[in-house]
Amino acid sequence: MPQTQFKELPQVQINEVAKDPLNEVIKNASIQERPCEETMDYYKNWASDYDKDTSDAQYKGPQITAEALEKLRLPKTARILDVAAGTGLVGEELRKKGFTNVDGLDGSQALLEIAQKKNVYRRYITALIGDDRKAPLDDNEYDAVVLSGAFSPGHLYTDCLPELIRIVKPGGYICWSMRDFSCYSERFREDKFNEGVEELCRVGLWKKVHEPYTFQNFLVGKEGKVYSMLVTK
Ligand SMILES: C[S@@+](CC[C@H](N)C(=O)[O-])C[C@H]1O[C@@H](n2cnc3c(N)ncnc32)[C@H](O)[C@@H]1O
């Protein structure tokens, strides 16, 4: 058989699948819009394998988020809240950098119990945010809020940003990393997400510390974005 026939077979498609090392559990966690209660069920089932699966996928979001926070030169005793903290991967990275006063909030009790075993946060707060829910936290309680992997379909969206701003002191920071937008739903188009961020700049609640920047390998082979915002309310 002439070799050219092989070249025309669906080799590219097979290669693409082989090249994508993300397992189905990771791929399906964030790919579809769904009520957050369903997302919590998803994480409950995934909880015991989450750290191994994200490690296998060389998940760099927590490290990149901690580096972004470190660049803001807050004191190591600054009060920090890790929102959508999960099993505490961001908390672990912040601890490596010397931050000593970090709380974790997540909607999933199952994930926070794993974080608790690592002893990475001072407080473990089980709460859902978004959709006009009020976090069980005071105004201006934190010097900074950090998030990694929190913004995606079925998770958090820009509607929760005013609530995050409420709990951060004026002059404090909110910074996050997230997967790039290319794989996501219509609602998660980059321009729409950024419009939500910009609107809060226009009304004077915060301003950008830098333009959002891209980094390689949020998960292996997938780009990520970093945002750092200064709260100016
Ligand atoms: C991809 S995991 C990221 C966890 C952790 N930040 C990390 O980097 O490993 C997304 C997290 O968001 C949490 N989450 C999703 N929707 C939420 C909501 N509406 N309120 C609070 N937590 C939520 C999930 O329970 C999960 O822990």
UniProtKB/TrEMBL annotation:
Residues annotated as transmembrane: none
Domain Methyltransferase intervals: 80-172
CDD domains: AdoMet_MTases
PANTHER family: METHYLTRANSFERASE (PTHR43591), METHYLTRANSFERASE-LIKE PROTEIN 27 (PTHR43591:SF101)
Name of the molecule in the record: Methyltransferase-like protein 27
Organism: Limulus polyphemus
